[in-house]
């Protein structure tokens, strides 16, 4: 019997794999550009996931941007006795994915730490987004790994929380938004925050963005010369779907 197992790809091999064409197409644009397009398509709040900001590799600084399909992980309180997956989620995440972790509202415990980032980075994961707390902040920064979260903490999750679902539909844990994140949805995150693009709208978003971004750039150039916003917008927004008013 052959007990040899296929070796996992090395990080250098993962980085050389061909990039998802959707990620490549979205790369030139910011979360704000994507939100503008989603608003035009009728998505509430332009897909913005509130109160989640960048903590690593720096705290709200630099040009870090992550884009990729969501791999969702749901934590629940142990007192509810949820059914738990047979294996650890961190060992099953495809390269190129973004981990999206959901924790119960007002949870004190962190749900993501430095060991998870070490495994994620070796697996070719793009970054991690947490609807909750992270811990081991310096470890994520030392690995130059993007992590977005609501806050930081010190306490590990096993005291009161456990993973109950992997790669299922999640709801943002907030009373201010009725927003869902699906495993097939695309996430984009940068200094402005996190936006979720429903998979079925990705192509429509990509069709809208170029013309609205070009119009906004033309308006900005005119504004810097002293032209009024109303004049510039009237000229460059004509026939353009999308665009921002701020």
Automatic annotation (TrEMBL):
Ligand binding (Mg(2+)): 136
Q: Which cofactor does it need?
A: Mg(2+)
Official protein name in the record:
Uncharacterized protein
Q: Where does substrate bind?
A: 113-116, 135
User: InterPro entries, per this entry?
Assistant: RraA/RraA-like (IPR005493), RraA/RraA-like_sf (IPR036704)
Native organism taxonomy? Eukaryota, Fungi, Dikarya, Ascomycota, Pezizomycotina
Keyword line: Magnesium, Metal-binding
> Could you tell me which species this protein originates from?
Heterodermia speciosa
Tree of life domain:
Eukaryota
MF terms from GO for this chain are:
4-hydroxy-4-methyl-2-oxoglutarate aldolase activity; metal ion binding; oxaloacetate decarboxylase activity
